[in-house]
Amino acid sequence: MNLVLLGPPGAGKGTLAARLVEEFGFVHLSTGDILREEVKKGSELGRLAKGYMERGELVPDEVILGMVRERVDDKSDGFLFDGFPRTIAQAEGLEGILPVHLVIYLELPEEEVVRRLSARRVCKRCGANYNLITQPPKVPGICDRCGGELYQRPDDNEEVIRNRFQVYTEQSAPLVGYYERKGILRRVDASLSPDEVFRRVAEVLRG
Ligand code: AMP
Asked: What's 25's domain CATH number?
C-alpha cells in the first residue's frame, strides 16, 4: 500500500516515518529532504527552491510533481509520502501517478508547532530528529545514532515557523477534507509521545 503522512510542520512526520520504515519496510519519500539535498548540492533545482524554503513558502506544484514523477510510477508500491502532497493540485497530480491507500493525519495546534520546531535539532549526517525539550540527544550537539553533528534548520526560527503554519493552514489543511471525502483519512493526536503516536498508527496499519 501507499501511505501519505499529513499534518502541520512539527507534527512528527519525519520521526514517525523513520519508525514506519524500520518496522513496516516502507520506502520513505520526503520532498523536504530531497529539496534540502538539492540546496546543499547547489543544483539548478536547489537554487530555485532555496528562496521559497527560506521564506517558509511552498515550492511550485509542477516542480514538486516533477521530482515525484522521477522517483515513482504507477507500479510503485509501499511508498510513504512525507510532506507531500501539500496542495490539492499536488494531490490530484499524485492520483495521476499512483493510488494512495491511506492518509494518516497528525493533528497538532499552532502553539505546540512553534514550541516543538524552535527546539528541533537535526543530524547533518543521517537526518535523525531530536527535540531539546522532549527528546534531547545523550551528548549535546551529537547524534545518538551515528555520531553526526546536530544543527538547527534555517527555517526553524519563530518568524518562518509562523509563516509555515499559515501556509499550511491555507494551502495544505484543505487536504484533510479532500482525503476524508475519499474515505481514506485517519486522524491521530500528534501531541502524544512519539511511541504512542507510532503505536496508534501501527494499529491502523494492522487494521
Ligand atoms: P519540510 O521538510 O517538509 O518541512 O519542507 C521544508 C520546505 O521545503 C517547505 O517549507 C517548502 O518550502 C518546501 N517543500 C517541501 N515539500 C514541499 C511540497 N510538497 N510542496 C511545496 N513545497 C515543499
From this structure: 3.40.50.300
